[in-house]
Amino acid sequence: MVKGGNVGLAALSEDTGSLVVSLSWSSASGDGDADVSILLLGADGKVRGDADFFFYNNPAAADGSVQLLGKTPTANGSEDRVGIDLTAVPADVERLVVAASQYGSARFGQLDDLRVTVADRTGEPLLGFSITDAGAESAFIFGELYRRGGEWKFRAVGQGYETGLAGLATDFGITVDEEDDPVPPDETEPQAAAPPAPVPQAGTVVVETPVAPAPVVLPAPAAGPPAAVPAQRPAPEPAPVRRSRGPRTAKKKVTLPKVAKKSLAENDSWRQARLFPAPTLKSDREREMRAASVLLAVMAQVPEFGRRLTAAFGAPAGRMQTFTEVTLPNGESPRRPDGVIRVERAGKLWTALVETKTNGNPLKSEQVQDYMDIAARRGYEAVITLSNDVALEGSPLVEVKTDGRRKHKVSLWHLSWAEVAHQAQLLIRHEGVGDAAHAWLLQELLHYLQHENSGCHGFQNMGPAWVPVRNGIDTDTLCQGDERAVAVVESWERLIRQVCLRLGGELGQKVLPVQRARRGTDQASRRAVLADRLCEEGRLTAELRIDTTPGILAITADLRTGKLRTSIEIPAPEQGYPLSWVKRLVRQLAEAPADLHVESLVEGARGPRGTLERLRPEPGDLLPKDGAAITGFRLSLFKSMGSTRGNAESGFIRSVDEAVDRFYASVVAPLTQSGGPERRPARRAAAAEAAAVD
Fold it and tell me: What distances in angstroms separate CA 65 from CA 38, 83, 143, 238, 463, one per listed residue?
């Protein structure tokens, strides 16, 4: 589409009731980020209330019409997706504005490949619009969905605001209060500036709507499987958008404490009773059956969790029922998928077949192909696979063929057990669910998934190419172009994606891998380049962008030396004296390991460096002797990496997890909590903190 153009969705697809709108951008340097937001407008072009403004602190509509699905990494940047159910949009809403905003001094002109894509529920793209004239705008309207003559249309807008999200929100009727409390200066020990609102210039959505838990009443038994009956409760409406750092006294959702209450057991041999026991499982088939049944049951009983997992697959918001071990006809050989998910909305059914694998067992292409064919014949919408593997763009886990002659399209989706655990962790530890019973159910599910006998541990094996590649690097016999090196690069990428999921679930923050590549590079070419670099240098590298941190966390696995390096580069302060900078940095790292390497970054040369143990009594040793300007500091920890390909006690995967955890807890977290080395607003750490509801 071109700027200003519009098109009717009915002309593009027969099924446009459920859409996925994707906003994407890239940056050659790996920097730059933005947050998507959706505004629902009435006939007057204004929101009906502040509850019609959806962004990362208000990610979903109670009626299921809008749900922010989060970011996923792409070859050059990231993609932010939104699920929109047009059949659930209230009748008095005439337009849905799709926008994005940046924080601080960032501008959209600094990003490349700005694009919005609209896809149907199967993931098939219907339209796309690229923006090429972005400049100083810090908030941008990519496009809008609107009603015309009973039909939904899309308009490519491509206009922005230099005044940020505050200007955009005000134009559409959002209440904005930009007053802020002054922050008293402290010249002796600079602290992080006052937390900005999570929405740049527009403030924080503060939810202060106390809602009493609604009773759950199960219906009388009926013929057939009972329906999952979620608790009905009033939809909370967020208060006006405003900046506020005062105490929060109302609760919107229920979360569980991180520290469990003291056990009443007499000794450690007493084991707590569990809803989903795992120790008795003996075979892979038992593990698969139990895992599928446990997951599907919790999805049906905890609406927030079930909706969170299925919205990304194009499912509508509605009444969900789940089934296991269903027999479906398939010629002379009936098939029994591990599960079936059905969602009912407005008399229409959405159905997905589920195939699970545990304990590292691979998915079988012929099995998944059978389910795709059955789903197409029976008019089902999707096939969902679950396994320990993490799916990668451009590298499918199973190969299936689609019969283009069939009018009915079936979408194939993959979900890793790590993603399931990630979503459960986010809900019960950070975002909250409807009531305490739902939180407890999710906790039991999470305990089951993390049990060593469940087989649902996520990506755990670097693959058969790992040992030959390590040996080839050690003996200097691995040549560029070796397909085994590409396989190792893909396994490394899967491992990093899982590290992001695990760390993001624990922190309650977005953690994404940074992928640096030239514009237009496809995934296969990018991985081939990385594989050749692995053959030449013997190193695997990755970078993680973690919300609230002052820099990008880098991971390097040197296969020649057997060392893992975790590091972060932080910029030098804009004001003050270099000696004050290094003294403050050393104070911030008071609890960091003594073997932490600290290096001053100097333009065009390597700066002074040393271990924290040596620098604590003499921080001035970090100053360049020639008086060269310091541009920043690099902090690094080194660890021996495991030798085996799997997640055993001495495994490589375990050593990467431990290295990242140790570095974040002992180095990154202290810097984040103290606002980093600069006295400037923390980008989104403070935003998340200010938006938290006690």
Answer: 11, 8, 17, 17, 42
